[in-house]
Each structure stands twice: as C-alpha cells, then as structure tokens.
Amino acid sequence: MDTSPPDHRGAMDRPTRRLFLMGTAAMLASGALISRPLPAIAQTADSMAIAELVTGKTIDPALAKRAVDAITVTQPDYPQALSRLASFATEQGITDVETLKTADGFDGELKNTAKTLISALYLGYAGTPVAHTSDDGVQFVTYTQALTYRLTEPYTPIPSYSRQGTGYWAHLPEAG
Amino acid sequence: MAQDYDADVIVVGSGAVGSNAAYELAKQGKSVIILEAGPSVPRWKILMNFRNSGRHYDRNDAYPNNPWAPTSYQPGYIQNTGSFDMMPGMLKLVGGTTWHWGGATWRYIPNDFKLKSLYGKGRDWPLEYDDIEPYYTRAEYELGIAGSDTDDQSGTHAGQAYPPRSKPYPITAEAYAVNGQKLNDTLVPQGYSMCIEPTVRIHKPWDGRPACQGNNNCDQVCPIGTLYNGSIHADKAVRAGAQLIPEAVVHKIETGEGNKIIAVRYLTPEGAEHRLTAKYFVLAAHSFETAKLMMMNDIGNSSDMVGRNMMDHIGISMGFLCEDTQWAGRGPVQQATIMNWRDGAFRSEHSANKTSMANNNPQIDLAKSAIDDGLMGAELDERILDQSRRYMYLYSFFEQLPDPKNRLEPNPEWKDSLGLPGMKIHFDVDDYVKAGAVKCREMYRDIAQKMNPKVEGGEILYINDWENHDHLMGTMIMGADASDSVVNHEGRSFDHENLFIASVGVIPAAGVVNPTLTAVALAIRSADIIAKEV
Ligand SMILES: Cc1cc2nc3c(=O)[nH]c(=O)nc-3n(C[C@H](O)[C@H](O)[C@H](O)COP(=O)(O)OP(=O)(O)OC[C@H]3O[C@@H](n4cnc5c(N)ncnc54)[C@H](O)[C@@H]3O)c2cc1C
Ligand code: SF4
Predict the structure, then answer these.
(1) Does B73 sit within 8 Å of A133, measured CB to CB?
(2) A83 CA distance to ligand 1 centroid (A)?
(3) What PROSITE patterns does UniProt report for this protein, alphabetically (chain A) (predicted)?
(4) How deeply is A4 buried, as exposed, middle or buried, from its count of CB atoms within 10 A (0-12, 13-18, 19+)?
C-alpha cells in the first residue's frame, strides 16, 4: 500500500527569493529606515514564501494571505513575528522545512510562529477553539483547501463534498 | 354560546417531536397552529454557512443564533453550577435540533420500561413496551428508518430479532462501512454482541429524500436532504392545513376555568405580543425550553418536578489506532454498535452502556494533535496519513438515573433581547454511571488490543471522560403518580387536562439508546388521544 503523501513539493526555488525580500523588508522596517507600510502586493508574496517554507508545499498566494490575515486578527503582533521568522531563515540561508525544523535556534517564539501558520494552513482556521460557546474568535481561513484535506482527499471525501455515490463506504478507496 | 378558538390545537415548537404531533392532528382534520421561535432557513444557506466557517467543532455554528432565539452556545444563555458542564447542542429554527443529529433511531427494549421493578434502580415507566410498540412502528414509517429486521439489538437475545416488532423496518439496513465491518468481524467471533444502528440516513430514496451519498456530515448539516429532520413534518403539517408561524417566541401561558390552559402569548423579534386561544395545547419546545417556559408561567408544576430529574446519556469515548487500514470518515457518521452491556442483572449494580463506532472524518483533529506535537514537513504528513488510515473512535452512553437535584431553572440574571430569561443548570454525574464507566473502560482496552493484536495494549490515543450527548430526558418526567411526576402515560399534564407535553423530556428512564424516536412515538400517541377529545 502506498502511503506516501501525494506530490506536493517542487517549486522549492521560489521561497528563497521571496523570503529574501521579506527579510529585507522586515529588517528595514525594524531598523526604522522606512516608515511607510509595505505595498499590499509585496505582503501577499511574502506570506506565500513563508507559507511555502514552513509547509514544504506550493501554496496559493491568496490562501497564504488569508491565513496570515486571519492569524493577525487573533494575534495582532503576528506580522512582526513572521518577519522575525523570515529574517532568521534568510540569515541562516534556510530554504526548506526539513532544514528549518532542525536548525539551531529554531525554537521558542520562532517555532511557535511557524506552528501557528502551519496550523492555519492545515486546519483551515486561525485562533483557539473553545468548546460550547458561539464566540471564541476563531477565524475562517479555508475549508476545501486545508492542507490536511489535500493530503487525504484521494482516500476520504471532504465532508459535504462526496462524489463517490451510495455505498462507496463498503470498500476501501482505490488509492489504497 | 359556543366559544371561538383560534385553533383546535396549538403546538409550541416545530422540532421533530412537535411537528410529528402537529402533522398527525392536521391529518386527522384538526385545525392546528404551530408556533416556532426560530426562523425558517433553506438548506443551501445552512450548507454555505458550514462550508465558510472554520468552527466545525461547534455544531450549532452554521445555524441561526438570534438575540430573540439564542442557541445553547450563546455565551451566558446556559449557566452551569454543578460539577458537569451540561451544554447540549440545541437549535432554534423551523425543524429544530434534528437539523444536526446522528440520526440514530433506536427503540427501547421491554426491560428498559421496568428498571425499578427488575433492577431496583430509578423508575419504571407508566406504560410497557407493548403499549408503545404500534407507535414506534408508525414513527419509523413517518421518519423513514433503515434498519435490520434480523439483528438482536438487546445484547441478550442472540440469534433472534429483538425487540419484537409488528412490521419490518421501512428500509433495509445500509451496508457496513469498511471499519464497522472490520470491527464486527473481529469482535463478534470473540464474544461481542454487535448490531447495526437503525437510522434516518437512508441508502435508498424514501418519501422525496435522496439516497445517502456518504457526505459524512450528518451532525453538521446533510447537504442533500437525505437525513431526516423535523422540518419535513413541519412542511407536511402545513400541507395538511396547519398554520406555521415562525419567529414567534411563546412566553406566556394562561389558565382559566378548571385550571385548563386557555391561551398562549408570543413575542415577535421586535417585541410585539400576540395572543392565541385553542382547545388543547402541546408544548414541544425542546426538553430545556419547555421546562423553562412552564416554570416561567408556573404551569403544570404542582409536583415541583418540572425542570428536575434531568438526564443525559453522559458518555466517555476512546480514540485508538487499528492494525489495518480503515480510512475513518467514509460514508455514514455512525453505524456499528456494541450491545454487550445494554441489559442484564448488572443493572442493579451499575449503569448499562451502548458503545458505538463513530465514523466522523477525523483528519483535522488528527492533524491538529500532530501540529501541537511539533511535527512539520514530511513527518507531519506521514503522521496524518498513518493515523487517518488506522484511526477508530468508539463512544459510549450511560444510563443516568433520575435525581430531582439535577435540574434547570430560569435564570433572570441573563436576558435575551425580548427580556426573557436564560437558564441555570445544576448537574452531577451519578455513581451508577461512574461504576458503569469502569466496566466500559475495561471493554475499551480489550477492544483496542483485539483491533491491534501485535502491539501490546493496542495503540490507545486517548480516553475522554464525561461528554454531553444532547439527549435531554426527565425534565417533564412521566409517571403514574401526580405527586412525583409532571405528565401521565398519555403525555398529559397532571395539572391541566388540555395540556400535553411532547418531548424527550418526558422520558422517565434513560436506557442507553438515543431517545428521539421514542419521543416521536409518544407524540403520535398523544396526538391520537387529543384528536379523539377535541
Ligand atoms: C449533535 C447532535 C446529535 C444528535 N444525535 C441524535 C441521534 O442520533 N439520535 C437521537 O435520537 N437524538 C439525537 N440528538 C438529540 C435530538 O436532536 C433531540 O432529541 C431532538 O431534536 C429533540 O426534538 P424536539 O422536537 O423535542 O426539540 P428540538 O428539535 O430542539 O425542537 C424544539 C423547537 O422548539 C422551538 N422553541 C423553543 N422554545 C420556544 C418557544 N418559547 N416558543 C416557540 N418555539 C420554541 C425551538 O426553536 C425548536 O425549533 C442529537 C442532538 C445533537 C445536538
Ligand atoms: S452521510 Fe452525508 S449524505 Fe448521508 S445522510 Fe449524512 S450528511 Fe447526508
């Protein structure tokens, strides 16, 4: 049985360049050399680069931006934290998640920053669920684009999107 | 001079239970008004709300939560003072809470009606299985239930179809999902008693509902209308001539001569008040809301039992990994059921349990725990895929005994936009249940081992304690004696002869099976009685 994840790697050259941009912008911003906000388009690209770095997957730029925006609603200082993570990766020359996760100094706040973004992209929401209340501030990121479902979709339909017909559940999926 | 009434019968609440009563009455030629606190919402809007929300762990989330008709998860609406956080899912819209449910539609077995006389615990019902059997059959045909005509559902009548039934299920049982079949094939040869859950999730078209496509979303919203909900009978009642008034929050009940109910008053979302009269009244506004409404009006409570004796099938659950690939989350959300502890002499010592496999898609939860554990990159994906392949989830219900101390009261310290009170609840899990859970945990460990024989002790991921299961019984308890019960075996108030309660809340002995079918059967029975009298 093949349980290896579907091919989601590739385009791994892209994070480097964008991370560099983001790291530079962040350093400039933190060094107070510029005071104007970054153009929105640059922020979208930067979100995507760092999302690709922490997941090791190609990420739709709109999804990356939605994730960062949603996290920022629940955690207003998140963009700064993300810039610190981008700077760290740029300074260390890290371009992929496998190197990142074992890099010296990748712990504490830096690791949590990465986990928060990974979580939003894999789970489709940002924030901390609280049981039994309608009001926990959790923000929507995506449903069908959640990376978890992209992994498992060959085997299990995304709830409410079954196209497999009555009774399909009596057999194992063809994919394995 | 003959008195004019607005209707023969007013039904408060358009959930599965009230709508079935209303439909029966309308079908029998009675004029019926249904008053429903919530709005009428089309399925597609609920589905879009679901798909555009990140809050899928909150099953109320896709549904209207209005300031004049809050759901149970509106902050402050339900306040708990006991050791258990009684926070069931509860909806307010036409069709009620069965818009999201598992669809499990079991009958009680004959011994469930005689818990006190057989086992010395709790209460007996004021009626027996044979009294309700014909109404179970009618309810099963109204709701369109798929079930097995050969299974023993009691765990004590091996090789026999049990409990006895006067008519086959309207629809045959659906095929086991791969994981349910595997559980069955592993456990039954090793002494377990298993059966398939009777369900309103139908694998063949029935009464305008399409065959289930396995969307695995029953307890959020069925995207295609396979899964029965109360709005089906609200619609049928309207087609049979009933008047349905949505966004009508009943807040006052008036009594008159002979302590009969003469009128109810409702408020619109803007606060305008309307008064309606009828010959008979059926309160079917959910177990909690009905009790609250009765207490707000001091109705039917000479026994002081309204709101008391609250029971739920408080449960525990286990997530574990099997040896073989199963892919949980394909098809029905629940199905295979273990009945070893449903009935027997042990009920004089500890609670029975029903243990079922839930087949809800587990992947987001599994991914969350892997991310929380710090996994990233290839390791993260491998863990998600490995656990998703092998994950199984079992959950169990226990039989809480009726205890007047477990209760709800209106809470005037919290008010909705109409100035109506919230609820205060006190609930403790009883020792009878706690003792039952000890046995259940032993069974869990045994099953985890049998499903994963090569790993010593199996691979148990967690065992959770004390969960809500939204089966709210006892709050308008049925009994033979007016001094300790709210309604008689007909569902009629001991205090007001033209007032009936149609609710899961009348159930006096919880058993271990999901109770809504029983409430619908009792409501149809009450409707027959009312129809003869008006
Ligand atoms: C997630 C989940 C899964 C479940 N699964 C199962 C299952 O598999 N099997 C099972 O048997 N049960 C299940 N249940 C329980 C089941 O949903 C309830 O037992 C059932 O809905 C009760 O029906 P009802 O008609 O009494 O109340 P409801 O369905 O709650 O309907 C009551 C109606 O009354 C209205 N109302 C309330 N107050 C007023 C007022 N003052 N004026 C006018 N109208 C009012 C409400 O708006 C509502 O529409 C489940 C519940 C949940 C939350
Ligand atoms: S499994 Fe899906 S299609 Fe079937 S009843 Fe449930 S929600 Fe509807």
Answers:
(1) yes
(2) 49
(3) TAT
(4) exposed
